Amino acid sequence: MLHIVACIKQVPDTKIIKMNPKTNTMDRSSAPAILNPYDSHAVEEAVRLRARYGGVVSVLTMGPPPAVKAIRKCIEIGADEGYMITDRAFAGADTLATSYALTKALEKIGQILPIDLIICGKMTIDGDTGQVGPGIARRLDMPPLTSVNKVVEINQEEGYAIVHRKLEDGYEVIRSTLPCLFSVEKDINEVPYSTMPNMLRAARYQPHIWSVSDLSDIDKAQLGLKGSPTIVSSVWAPQKPQGGTLLEGDPVEQIRQLLDIVLQRKELFEAALGGGTH
């Protein structure tokens, strides 16, 4: 039986979130929490692979108790089971500590049903690092396939997967042994509207919730702030760009205005050309 686990995260909606001008920190209360958009595509791809090959789709997240909503959203998409690790000991985790905690949870899930494939979103919109997925793969000693935008084949019997990895100027075809980990691009699929049966199941669904004490052989020094060697020293909102100059009149008059602007700013153009005019 093919067992796919999608690692997901609940994040603030960055289209709405605001910055506190006094503290230069994100005001998370200003925006609703949503399922990380890249992760929704990871779950959808897992569901599509289950439709092709059969099996079970599980989702895993680490977060505060309200992150249960993100798991239920995954159930709406079509996941079978949801797992959440939540504990104050996980608070303040960077990508290194996060990958460690999720790895320990994945090991526990694997004891329930062996894992063949892990799928993550390419990155989270609140962190943009793309480090957690490869970090999990390294800890589990499995191949990480990043920037996946097409799954060609999963052959559980012969133990391999074939995917396309997105590059700047095309794609490359990769064959990997199973188990392995994908981090997927948004363009790997389109997430459809949830079906009514899935929505009803999600509304009633209660995920498996574990604390630190439920995980085996765990080093608490590698969790949360204690296990996070990186810190965010400062965050600030970028300054709003200054308004441009509106050129008015007929085309000839607009050209004259443009030449006046260029001559007024000629030192900028000279610097860009390495000094002197050409």
TrEMBL record:
Q: Which InterPro entries match?
A: ETF_a/b_N, ETF_b, ETF_beta_N, Rossmann-like_a/b/a_fold
Q: What is this protein called?
A: Electron transfer flavoprotein small subunit
Electron transfer flavoprotein alpha/beta-subunit N-terminal domain residues? 23-219
**Superkingdom of origin:** Bacteria
Q: Identify the PANTHER family for this entry.
A: ELECTRON TRANSFER FLAVOPROTEIN BETA-SUBUNIT, PROTEIN FIXA
What lineage does UniProt assign to this protein's organism? Answer: Bacteria, Bacillati, Bacillota, Bacilli, Bacillales
CDD domains with a match to the protein in the record: ETF_beta
